[in-house]
Amino acid sequence: MTIDSMRATPRPGEAADPQFVQLLTPEGERVEHPDYPLDLTPDDVRDLYRDLVMVRRIDLEAVALTRQGELGIWASLLGQEAAQIGSGRAMNEHDMAFPTYREHGVAYCRGVDPLNLLGLFRGVNHGGWNPAEHGFHLYTIVIGSQTLHAAGYAMGIQRDGVLGTPGAGAAIAYFGDGATSQGDVNEAFVFASVFNAPVVFFCQNNQWAISEPLERQTRIPLYQRAQGFGFPGVRVDGNDVFACLAVTRAALAQARDGQGPSFVEAYTYRMGAHTTTDDPTRYRHKADEEAWKLKDPIERVRSYLVRNGLADAGFFDSVDADAKTAARALREACLSLPDPEPGAIFEHVYAEPHPLMTAEQEAFAAYLASFEEVTA
Amino acid sequence: MTAETLTLGKALNAGLRRAMEDDPKVLVMGEDVGRLGGVFRITDGLQKDFGAERVIDTPLAESGIVGTAIGLALRGYRPVCEIQFDGFVFPAADQIITQLAKMRMRSLGSVSLPITIRIPCGGGIGAVEHHSESPEAYFAHTAGLRVVACSNPVDAYAMLRQSIASDDPVIFFEPKRRYWEKAPVPLDGDFPSLHSAQVVQAGTDVTVLAYGPSVKTCLEAATAAASEGRSIEVIDLRSLNPLDLPTLAASVERTGRCVVVHEAPVFAGFGAELAARLTELCFYRLEAPILRVGGFSTPYPPSRLEDEYLPDLDRILDAVDRTFAW
What we know:
The structure holds two protein chains of two kinds. Chain A has helices at 5-8, 42-67, 81-88, 104-109, 114-122, 131-134, 145-160, 183-195, 225-229, 241-256, 286-293, 297-307, 313-335, 355-375, and strands at 20-21, 96-98, 171-176, 199-205, 208-209, 212-213, 233-237, 262-267. By secondary structure, chain A is α/β, with parallel strands linked by helices.
């Protein structure tokens, strides 16, 4: 017997949903939404465009480095640039992001050197940046775990008594559509809700959890899950950087003001493979990808800039040149990343001295040294 | 030095209270720890005195408790989580193993997670399934965690304060069937290092190693053996990770015989690590293989059978006899 649950499942929310917040159409036309006014100067828009191009170029370079054997693996953000730049630029200096392993665009907004990200995927370390310095926590690889960290961090913000003051920050948890099936994510929703914690749950619904489509995770639009947990949910065009910026700004502002958690579903598409080891041709149609290409997050900003006379060819050329320069510098820096010393295995396991770490480190050093004596 | 006669449970309560008084960042969180004071009343009165912001009745979700504690620690707090019973820690195992234990290395040392996770453990209280387990080996096996187990009121108080003060995550096992044991507890002064083993009964013929609820049983066994002219040295490990090997090895070097006792199943249990390490360190001094006494390699049985399952005085003495008969 086969159980065709897929056939019985309604497509969980198409973009035609009335809740869908869009401020910039795929054609580059600015549209208004009553709940999300957004005033951007021409400089703001050009900066957003530059961010989008930069992170796509960095991502492309990382994919190339992986193909050439320089990184062990890479999780490409291709297609999700607007969701990440829009939400990333909505954060203030007091906010703290809790990313998955695909938030390269958010990392860029938070001032994390992309070389750190490449170092992780090259295997030089497991991350290594200081989260407090950037308001950007470490990449979390176990799906959904970081949403609880975000909820707990937000409970800490509450206890610091800063909500509603100019020094207030909020937590923002990044996760994907697949993660919404995880127990931890649902527990994070419960904790955030019952404690009214200042956290924004920012779900990039990129339609795919490796090979499993959205229908395998949900039978209702994801943003509607929030209602069951007792906080607002909104779906935003995840390929529209304006909408992602406006909606995340509003959600963060509410959180910082003490109005509690909210859920943002950025409706987007993973244009690339899950990671460089994945093969999407085994589970999805090229036609899907072609349809989403028409909704490209960068092209629509470019069209908007051109259509409104806010940028000329010189601007676009300079952005491309800057991106190319940055990518080249990143490549060179990546190739010259030194491998860690063997002793690094034992470092940073414990904050305080630990006799077993010391004993194993010393024994291993002596073992390695014995080879040097033989060769000397 | 002030000392107060306290039960082990009250000593834990006093330790928590003192830690909360000393450091406003210390939080207590768990299921029923607030108004009720915990199902064993270990947190009794703390919410009344420190408020609901610092003594948090959490939703009923263990992964959520540990996961949000990690977030609170990232924000500068020092959470003490209560897991209601040993068998309920497993929903939190992922957060403990993949996040809590590894965050420091992931951050190259820029992040510390000073979190204490209190777990009442072991059997002997006639409970239903999942309320009598000894999961210490899972956590001792996980690098990045410190794992300790108190056996008496004095250590309960001192070790809990030390665990909370540690900048590393600490899994703190409490011997639930000993919660009502009493002793005079020094409330101040110099406490032995958190990770030191203690010789709790000096002896010359055989070394018996134990921790948590088994220590008292071993002391009773030593008393019984003494009446038959056999001198048992009992060492309370107190800390499973790190392990105070010098203290253990010094004893085994002297006695030449060693028996390890714990409630957890013997197969792949913590005793295996002790036996392997001490065999390596004391090989030429050993008169017999190191023997292990513990729970059987079965799930914990229904409580009408737990007296058969748990290592008791007779099974400990039987193992001691076997080391002499070798």
